[in-house]
Amino acid sequence: MGSRFCSRLHLQIFKWGPRGAPAFLYAAKKHQEYCEQPITGWMGHKAPFDFDKKYVASKRMTKFLSGTPPVLSMSMLDAALVSFEKIDVQQLREKSIQLTELFLSL
């Protein structure tokens, strides 16, 4: 039969670590056009890069995106991932085992 709707929200309640609320929202395709989002955002627009003056919501689930992409965070992540391009997966695995063994011996 399958799910028609599903949502999840996780709030960070600890005093350390990054703050935020990772979440997801799902609606079966046959319901997506009829779901409404009261908080509009640039990425939820039907054609966000047309820069229309009038907001027209997407008919897909993207209408629920209520903000802009985290450009600075994504550019930092992109730069950080460059350092992993030449890493051998086997070497990475060996190092992870060494660190785990060190941690367990403490």
Can you give me a brief rundown of this structure?
With 106 residues, the protein is an alpha+beta fold. It contains three helices and two strands.
Characteristics:
106 residues, alpha+beta, 2 strands
Q: From the alpha-carbon coordinates, what is the Rg to the nearest angstrom?
A: 21 Å
Largest sheet: 2 strands, antiparallel
Order of helices and strands: EEHHH
Q: How much is the average pLDDT?
A: 82
Q: Numbering strands along the chain, what is their spatial order in the largest sheet?
A: 1-2
In one word, what is the shape?
elongated
Number of strands: 2
Structural class: alpha+beta
Share in β-strands = 5-15%
How far do the termini sit from each other?
51 Å
**Helix amount:** 25-40%
Contiguous runs where pLDDT drops below 50 for at least 5 residues? none
Number of helices: 3
Question: In words, what does this structure look like?
Answer:
- It is elongated and about 60 Å long.
- The model has no long low-confidence stretch (mean pLDDT 82).
- It has three helices and two strands; from the N terminus they run ββααα.
- It starts with a strand and ends with a helix.
- A two-stranded antiparallel sheet has the order 1-2.
- The protein is α+β, with helices and mostly antiparallel strands and 106 residues long.
